UniProtKB/TrEMBL annotation:
<comment type="similarity">
    <text>Belongs to the 3-hydroxyacyl-CoA dehydrogenase family.</text>
</comment>
<feature type="binding site">
    <location>
        <position position="144"/>
    </location>
    <ligand>
        <name>NAD(+)</name>
    </ligand>
</feature>
<dbReference type="InterPro" id="IPR036291">
    <property type="entry name" value="NAD(P)-bd_dom_sf"/>
</dbReference>
<dbReference type="InterPro" id="IPR006108">
    <property type="entry name" value="3HC_DH_C"/>
</dbReference>
<dbReference type="GO" id="GO:0006635">
    <property type="term" value="P:fatty acid beta-oxidation"/>
</dbReference>
<feature type="site" description="Important for catalytic activity">
    <location>
        <position position="141"/>
    </location>
</feature>
<feature type="binding site">
    <location>
        <position position="33"/>
    </location>
    <ligand>
        <name>NAD(+)</name>
    </ligand>
</feature>
<keyword id="KW-0560">Oxidoreductase</keyword>
<dbReference type="GO" id="GO:0008691">
    <property type="term" value="F:3-hydroxybutyryl-CoA dehydrogenase activity"/>
</dbReference>
<dbReference type="Pfam" id="PF00725">
    <property type="entry name" value="3HCDH"/>
</dbReference>
<feature type="domain" description="3-hydroxyacyl-CoA dehydrogenase C-terminal">
    <location>
        <begin position="187"/>
        <end position="281"/>
    </location>
</feature>
<dbReference type="InterPro" id="IPR013328">
    <property type="entry name" value="6PGD_dom2"/>
</dbReference>
<feature type="binding site">
    <location>
        <position position="273"/>
    </location>
    <ligand>
        <name>NAD(+)</name>
    </ligand>
</feature>
<feature type="binding site">
    <location>
        <position position="120"/>
    </location>
    <ligand>
        <name>NAD(+)</name>
    </ligand>
</feature>
<feature type="binding site">
    <location>
        <position position="56"/>
    </location>
    <ligand>
        <name>CoA</name>
    </ligand>
</feature>
<dbReference type="InterPro" id="IPR006176">
    <property type="entry name" value="3-OHacyl-CoA_DH_NAD-bd"/>
</dbReference>
<keyword id="KW-0520">NAD</keyword>
Length: 281
């Protein structure tokens, strides 16, 4: 099967990036969100990102208009997926919500269409459970910010077919990105390894280490581009906490969130988005 039409469900930080890189690679994109305002903001963000490329001489002004012309937006889920060859879901990280979205899409998307979820931690088989296409279901985990990050984690569910995996691999390659293939346990490879490290960094703060010293140590001594605590502030303490809770379900107590992380989330110290986390913004 050849992919021509891509539907992206959820036009937040990830969905808009996925829509942008898909349109840049020549796909017709249908971008869906429950919020009209969210769709407007997404289109503005995509335009701004493309404008920057034009300013830097990496993209011709005409190409920007062609790319934008490939993206249609709609709040109607059925309409968004009607002609889709590939559906990529990027709604909030909530299992019940994702299951509900896919159950509804399953009824209107073409039979042969492949379903992909951009979940960071939730097992793919659980998200796919309510659909009639376990063999055509895969995890396509893009990184943030999507246009800049080279790697995409592909997650093969227990019933994902070879054909689905191959088509998904080719699709990611066509975006100019590279894949790593992960087995379908909570957190896959990236979140499983990363969040364990982030949790340990929070425990180092609890043990009396200064956040700045922790970040400095990991940047200077391990060549990290960003310190773990600055990264939690960037991603959001609530998101990291949520991921750890999901992985605790599969792997037990070693993923128990550090008490300080729980306390910070209760106190609204989520990082950049609330103006305070391990640092002040
Ligand atoms: N932000 C990251 O760094 C990152 C990185 C990798 C993966 N992810 C994953 O990507 C997914 C999306 O994350 P995000 O950061 O873009 O979230 P976000 O909060 O920025 O955006 C989510 C969007 O989904 C929309 N939405 C909610 N319910 C919907 C529905 N029923 N139908 C259509 N749209 C709906 C919301 O209106 C919102 O615009 C999550 O599963 C997250 O775990 C996030």
């Amino acid at each position: 099967m050849e992919i021509k039409n891509v539907a992206v469900i959820g036009a937040g930080a990830m969905g808009l990036g996925i829509a942008q890189v898909s349109a840049q690679a020549g796909y017709q994109v249908s971008l869906n969100d429950i919020s009209e305002n969210g769709l407007e903001k997404a289109l503005k963000a995509i335009t701004k990102s493309l404008d920057k490329s034009v300013e830097k001489g990496r993209l011709a002004a005409e190409s920007r208009d062609v790319i934008l012309g490939r993206i249609k937006t709609t709040t109607d889920l059925a309409e968004a997926v009607r002609d889709a060859d590939l559906v990529i879901e990027a709604v909030f990280e909530n299992l019940a919500l994702k299951q509900d979205v896919f159950k509804r899409i399953d009824q209107t998307a073409p039979q042969q269409a492949i379903f992909g979820s951009n979940t960071s931690t939730l097992p793919i088989a659980a998200i796919a459970a309510g659909t009639g296409r376990l063999d055509r279901f895969v995890g396509i985990h893009f990184m943030n910010p999507v246009p800049l990050m080279k790697g995409v984690e592909l997650i093969r569910g227990r019933h994902t077919s070879d054909e689905t995996l191959r088509i998904s691999l080719d699709f990611v390659k066509s975006l100019g990105k590279e894949t790593a293939i992960a087995v379908d346990y909570a957190g896959f490879i990236v979140s499983r390894v990363l969040d364990a490290m982030l949790n340990e960094a929070v425990k180092c703060v609890m043990d009396g280490n200064d956040p700045e010293e922790i970040d400095k140590a990991m940047k200077l001594c391990c060549n990290f581009p960003i310190g773990p605590l600055a990264l939690i502030d960037l991603v959001g303490a609530d998101i990291v906490l949520n991921g750890l809770e999901t992985m605790r379900g599969d792997f037990g107590d070693k993923y128990t969130p550090a008490p300080l992380l729980q306390q910070m989330v209760r106190g609204g110290d989520l990082g950049r988005k609330t103006g305070r986390g391990f640092y002040k913004y």
